[in-house]
Amino acid sequence: MPINFDSALGIHADALRIRTQRAEMLATNLVNADTPNYKAKDMDFQTALQMAASGQKSAALNTTHLKHIAGNGENPFEAATQYRTTLQDSLDGNTVDEQVEQAQFMQNAIQYQASLEFLGSRFQGLTKAIKGE
């Protein structure tokens, strides 16, 4: 009987992928902290996880004609993407607060590590089951 990794790992593999994309988004915010008019973005993790659980890959528009432009798929969880509200306005229109972004990045990194360790234990369990231990 073949092992179905999707059912064996559950939603945790998707959670790890979403955490990775959120880390990229938060890192982009930090890099653009001095860019005028840059708007800080974040991801609603629960919405993205629900999209992944339901199999929805994108919030893109449906194409009804062959000449319609399809989405490029850069952000499969575009519906979960939100703009961060500022605590203090800046003169150049930038909404990145470095302290908030660093705190969010570190929290996401800790949650990423926890998901990674959980998946590692799931793989160890599968390995033991295959070996018959």
UniProtKB/TrEMBL annotation:
Principal place of residence: other
Keyword DNA damage recorded: no
UniProt-listed GO biological process terms: bacterial-type flagellum-dependent swarming motility
Listed InterPro entries: FlgB
Localization annotation: Bacterial flagellum basal body
Gene Ontology annotations for the cellular component aspect, listed alphabetically: bacterial-type flagellum basal body, rod
Keywords: Bacterial flagellum, Cell projection, Cilium, Flagellum
Family: Belongs to the flagella basal body rod proteins family.
NCBIfam families given in the database record: FlgB
Subunit structure: The basal body constitutes a major portion of the flagellar organelle and consists of a number of rings mounted on a central rod.
Entry function: Structural component of flagellum, the bacterial motility apparatus. Part of the rod structure of flagellar basal body.
Protein name per Swiss-Prot or TrEMBL: Flagellar basal body rod protein FlgB
Source organism: Methylophaga muralis
